[in-house]
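Progress report, Aim 2. The chain analyzed during this reporting quarter is listed below.
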Amino acid sequence: MTTRATTTRYRVEAFHTPSPDRLVHLDDHVITVADGAIVSVQARRDDPEPVDVDLVGDHVVLPGFVDTHVHAPQWPQLGTGLDLPLEEWLGKHTFPLEARYVDLGFARTVWQDLVATLLAHGTTTAAYFATRHPEATVELGRVCAELGQRGLVGRVAMDHPEMTPPDLRDAGADEAVQLSAEVNLELDALGSLVTPVITPRFVPACTDALLSGLGELAAATGVRIQTHCSESDWEHEHVATRFGRSDTECLEVFGLLRQHTILAHGDHMADGDLRRAALAGAGVAHCPRSNMLFANAVFGVRRARELDLRVGLGTDIAGGDQPGVASQMSLAVAVSQMLEDGVDRSVSPGRRGRPGSRIGVVEAFFLATAGGADLVGLPVGVFEPGRRFDALAVRVEAGGTGRASSGLRFWDGVDDEPARRFDKVVRLAGPADLAHVWVDGVRRAGTAGSAAA
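Predicted structure tokens for the chain:
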């Protein structure tokens, strides 16, 4: 017996970025979706048959946003303690909070609020560092499946006796690897929206035995990896002192630099590190807001892309104090300009910055969609046949008739060019403007009164 596919046809004006330097405007197109997969994308003139959802005229449709780095347990501390150095912030704020996730009821309450909020911000895929606790980690995956967000979920492994607090420390490397393997199996059973990820917190928090064991687990199972890499002066120098290698080299030695390994931050990676990661098929989760606060440096997106390194965007909740990927796009452009121009006026203009570092809004949007999808290895981020339909419908209004809650307007005679409208949508759209948020072809969030298919 065969099951008939559930098909929905959307008439849209849409934008997507199949490559970092290519903005595609789909002006009056029909996207046909069957059981969550995009079947065809055709101009309306070539596909005049009836549609199920007509969004042309007052909506712009975009691929869903991919957040490549989120600390789920830090959600309750969003916006606090951000004037401290990273190591102090972790000790005073983060670690005491993460110890509370032994309480499964507390964990579920936080997870439900976090996932629902991120969906409302258009985050259709998120790569989550969960917590050390197996039950709470699996519960995060369960909430992602229930609320309909793509979640890459990892149990955080850390066992170093000098670098981790006792109530967050695995009893030993063998136990940590075993717990990670068991959690991965449970997450894998939660359905297609949930993907397990092996998650050593970062090299300073792990013994050699744990790093080696997790590398062997990845090799044996093919499960993806996520960790921090060269985020700050402190982390980068700690690894160099301990191993006589860069953070990237160390991860490679332990078998943790693999296809789709997500390296959070990477601000202090040298060109050799970037090349090493690119050859391994890994990439960097660029977190511009968090890096402004903690990283002591700005990640060079343009240089990384020149070396063929995968790059996506991340919020780094709660090291970044803004919950949506949309804000990170504007910040990614801004910090790249700061890197190119320099910020210290006492240095001569010719020596102040790093030439060739600037990126534009098209490349930033690519990082938030197709680039992030490529980094995490999931078939989303672009409107093309074979990809899953994860998408946002942004409500836009004519100038002079807009809502006070939003600055997004299209003005006749001013915003007639598609590139200009795209720029406005990327920089100005917020949760109040997201009428519909779809994941795998199912509407999961949005401000519109009707639940469009």
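Residues 341 and 350 are 9 Å apart (CA to CA). The mean pLDDT is 94. These observations will guide the mutagenesis work planned for the next reporting period.
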